[in-house]
Amino acid sequence: MKKFEEKTIRTEEIFDGKVVKLQVDEVLLPNGKRSTRELIKHPGAVAVIPITKDNKIVFVEQFRKPLEKSLIEIPAGKLEPGEKPEITAIRELEEETGYTTSQLTFVTSFYTSPGFADELMYLYLSRDLEKVDQPLAPDEDEFVEIIELTLAEAKEYVSKERIHDAKTNYAIVYLELLERML
After folding, report:
1. I want to staple 96 with a disulfide (CB 3.0 to 4.6 A). Which of 24, 75, 152, 177 is the partner?
2. How much is the pTM?
3. Are residue 143 and residue 155 in the same domain, yes or no?
4. Which whole number is the average pLDDT over 138-153?
5. How many CB atoms lie within 10 A of CB 1?
């Protein structure tokens, strides 16, 4: 066994939903003892940092039920089975904002909550936005409002916790670093 590896002894599937699966694994720890791990299995997701021609970031505001409040976030969505992240990114961008793009730049990928979930999120940047005359419809249970902010305005929203999720904060820090390099 590797230094920190936990060997799975048994898996119990608890829930199989549209977005996530929940399982409980019994594991053998590196010290030989046993423990349990509650795990969320997720198909992965994408997020896009969309920048308009006048250098504004396109955000969506939406209600987040686990938090019981609305957040302002960059557009994002779940990967569909067999779908490439770039395709998901363009689809989600259009569904949520009414913009499309012919150019995506891969920024990075990261695990959103590795302590209990395997969700891997792919982050893209696009500065080549075009408004779509008849955009793809959002999901039937998705209600969003578009907000366009400068980087300075977005940082102010962060300080007031109007922007308060990891992917969007990551995007703002990334844009701030890019700005400093130019």
Report:
1. 75
2. 0.92
3. yes
4. 89
5. 10
